[in-house]
Amino acid sequence: NNNSSNSTSSGGKHERNPSHRPAFSERFELQKKQEQVVKTGVIRFNMKPKKGLAYLRQHGILGDTPEDLAAFLHKHKRQLNKTIVGDYLGEHHDFNKKTLYAYVDMMSFSGMSFDDGIRHFLSGFRLPGEAQKIDRMMEKFADQFC
């Protein structure tokens, strides 16, 4: 009888369910490995953004959408190089622009003065040096702030 491995119990004995929740030690080890992957990915992003993002995607930490990246940038803004983030968000490529828009859309400016709003907006990145990039970023800020 080959379907005994599919049954949930056999003569009062409970078989291990393949969808069982991992033990605490297994979850802890997995979390530590994921933290190390994120740490390495952040370091790589800070040196070369495309390589860091590829590394994070390859290890299943980051999805493929602009929204995934925007959420990652918010979550890890303390570890990320603000100049690199600003340069990345300011790039003219479609994916970068969509990431910028998703990044700003995830921010709430309700009840904030303009000063507080702009500080909040710039808390995760530095404006790039190119006027066209700054204009695109400030325009998106104005859309969300108003």
> Order of strands across the widest beta sheet?
1-2
The chain-level structural class is: mainly alpha
Low-confidence stretches: 1-14
Query: Would you list the SSEs in sequence order as H and E?
Result: EEHHHHHHH
Shape: globular
Average of pLDDT? 89
Rg for CA atoms: 22 Å
Give descriptors for this structure.
146 residues; mainly alpha
Task: Provide a descriptive summary of the structure in words.
The chain is mainly α and 146 residues long. Helix content is 60%, strand content 3%. The chain has helices at residues 24-47, 49-58, 66-75, 82-90, 94-105, 114-121, 131-145; strands spanning 9-10, 13-14. Strands 1-2 form a two-stranded antiparallel ribbon. Strand 1 (9-10) and strand 2 (13-14) form a beta hairpin. Helix 5 (94-105) packs parallel to helix 7. The protein is globular.
How would you summarize the topology of this molecule?
Layout: E1 9-10, E2 13-14, H1 24-47, H2 49-58, H3 66-75, H4 82-90, H5 94-105, H6 114-121, H7 131-145
Antiparallel strand pairs: 1-2
Summarize the structure.
This protein has 146 residues and is mostly helical.
